[in-house]
Design a protein that fits this description.
The protein has helices spanning 2-41, 44-75, 79-113, 121-145, 148-178, 183-215. It is 83% helix and 0% strand. The chain is an all-alpha fold and 236 residues long.
Length: 236
């Protein structure tokens, strides 16, 4: 009876932590889409809300980590259950980083609002953001359903996101060569595109954690990557 009671308490606590992960994922998805919308519409108020909303994402990660640490300390999970708890923490870390990238996108909206518009750029950014958000949504669905096939599909889609990013990068190079006035805005837009592409990497990390959780092993092959750009880092 005592063992069954402990198992029930563990399951209940784990469900609570998983619910927080899904809430966190929803906030990150909204932040990414809103940041892309703010850029497209040059909406500085919406961009400011995205930046402010990052605090809630960070707070959820802290709460998830605290609950998981308490689970480990008080419930003494078995090997399989411990793997689940560690997966929850790793997914939360990936989501927190994705939230940071959304905030970085929003930070550049005010700057770009004062610069000439680059034809077609904001539409390309929004398409890339939608593709990455769909990856993130599916990765979280795969986690809830313990769906290895869907997780592997997300993992393979990272190649498509890389190809979209490469195409955008070449598009920006063309604009910069055609008109030197485009150099400033295109550099900012490149950083934004690279940040979004890196969110795709974090969605892939979530999918790989699902595969690890279900199978007990990380994928044996290298990630499918197609990055033909110069590899300029995108920060802050």
């Amino acid at each position: 009876m005592n063992s069954a009671h402990i198992a029930t308490a563990f399951d209940r606590d784990l469900e609570s932590a998983q619910a927080l992960v899904m809430r966190m994922g929803g906030l990150v998805e909204t932040a990414l889409l809103d940041a892309a919308e703010a850029l497209d519409a040059r909406d500085e108020d919406l961009a400011a809300r995205v930046r402010a909303g990052d605090a809630a994402i960070d707070a959820l990660e802290d709460q998830i980590n605290s609950e998981c640490a308490r689970l480990i300390a008080l419930r003494g999970p078995t090997a399989g259950d411990l793997r689940t708890v560690l997966t929850v923490m790793k997914i939360a870390a990936a989501l927190e980083r994705a939230g940071d990238y959304a905030k970085n996108l929003a930070k550049r909206t005010a700057i770009l609002s004062q610069m000439p518009q680059v034809p077609g750029a904001s539409g390309s950014i929004r398409r890339l953001a939608r593709a990455v958000v769909q990856m993130l949504t599916d990765a979280l669905d795969a986690y809830i359903r313990r769906d290895v096939k869907l997780a592997e599909d997300v993992r393979q889609r990272d190649r498509d996101v890389d190809q979209m990013y490469n195409s955008i990068f070449r598009e920006f190079l063309t604009h910069m060569m055609e008109d030197p006035r485009n150099i400033g805005p295109c550099m900012h837009l490149h950083f934004i595109a690279k940040n979004i592409e890196r969110v795709g990497d974090h969605a892939t990390s979530v999918a790989e954690q699902v595969i690890y959780l279900v199978t007990g092993a990380m994928p044996g092959d290298d990630r499918p990557k197609v990055d033909s750009t110069t590899g300029i880092a995108a920060r802050g």
